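U., I forgot to send this yesterday:
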Amino acid sequence: MPTLRVARGRSTAPEFRFADAAVIGRADDCDVRVFDEAASRHHAVVRREDDGYVAVDQNSLNGLYVNGRRVERHVLKTGDEITVRNLTLVFIAEGATERPTVISERLTIQSRLEPVDARLGGEDEGLVGRLAAVYRFASVLNTPPRQRRAAIVAALEEAFPSCAVALILPDGNVGTFSRSVVDHARGRKEAVLVREPRVDMPGASSLVAEKILSAMAAPLGGFGALYVHRAQGEAFEAADLELLTALANAATPCLRPADAPPATAAPVDEMIGASPAMEALRAEIAQIAPTAATTLILGETGSGKELVARALHALSPRAQGPFVAINCAAFVENLLEAELFGHEKGAFTGADRARAGRFEQAHGGTIFLDEVGELAPGLQAKLLRVLESREFHRLGAAKPTRVDVRIVAASNRDLKRGDFREDLYYRLSVVSIHCPPLRERAGDVRLLARAFLGDRTFTEKALAKLEVYDWPGNVRELRNVCERCGVLARGDTIDIDALPLEIRLGRAGRAADPGKLKTLREMEAEMVARALEATEGNRTQAAKLLGITYPTLKKKIDELL
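Result:
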């Protein structure tokens, strides 16, 4: 029997064997499932006909592609790549023992040169053109640094004629581009192709407003990107994206800024901090990440639980799969169930089409359930079933859906107390990781503050105030304070007067140990801070609230600072 093997993207299995026909699409009854909302329910079919096995488009909206070209019907041979939205399958005929590469089929290497027109045509001409474009592009990378950027842009325009191109770098951009497309490529460090902006990326308002036909971008090591779009003609195809990615890979070493992190930097190394608590956390992540164990991350609000979850995913064997995060506290119960498990068309009012849930979107990767302690009891029972069987039902579906995901959950409260199911807690906490609060990370406040401020710096007095503050909001609160100081302060050096009043006063962020008496100075500072907080910083009203005069309050504040 012939085989369809998954080459890129994800489906319900790594390969599919079939006899007469295999239906590819988004519907549950398809032989090969496509987890992409832009795919049609029954998008295409591979079937046996008189002239062999053929791939046939089933009147889909977004088209069937074979070897990067849109087709209605295509006679298949071993090695052909069939693309339906984000899923690419390789066709392997019955009895074939290996998959020949597409390039070796299209281009015959000979021992002597012959005129290109005599032996190449059609697809081959396009292939040779792309290889020539890569060769010409590589030749400009040795241009002197001052002329290099202009030369790269010119070579990019030559590789993609009649297109608008852009080079995006940290210290300046050349050309116009869609920020949404570039942010996707640079943030996720993956090339992106937008064939139809209204369908593929409706949030890219500039593409829609300027009536851009098609756009694509490829990352430059995470610090920049190459970008191309066209307003007329034909939409870009997979082969165009492969060419742009090859050019970006070639250009990355010579364009990388001196202070940019290496492209191979692991996410765990991006965690800022050199305290013993952070070193222990890194070691714990490195030990747990390669396993498939369900993991529960515990820690206070703002301590970096999602960053830990992303590091677990990036250092795992599932790193090439999707990472899907959802905050369980952000949805009411009914909406959260549809968000997690998806729904069929007509499952409820407004469900005008079927939709894959977060678990399906995370197939082959990791799903991160933030604030899992906020799940309603009914959803806790359904999550327990998913943990045990990796199966669930979409809303309105008769058949179960099976997924292959690693589950990472997080909470800022003790799940062993309250109404959280005990059996679910033990299923989630196969392995537990504790994120240390910022107050337990001695010395990390300085490192974090410097990272958040960028080119600006705090004075030593300001840093001393930051270090003694209790930080009830942890790293998130520190980031917000740094952003506030950056907006309000003048100049490159930020002094103590730019800090929020509660930090200048050294107010405790949480209840003190009841067995320990406060000093008179600590009590005065707390009372003044509470009065100012209650009056939104109005010192006159705060003085009245405390029963003292305005000059007395001003004198107290000066003494406490």
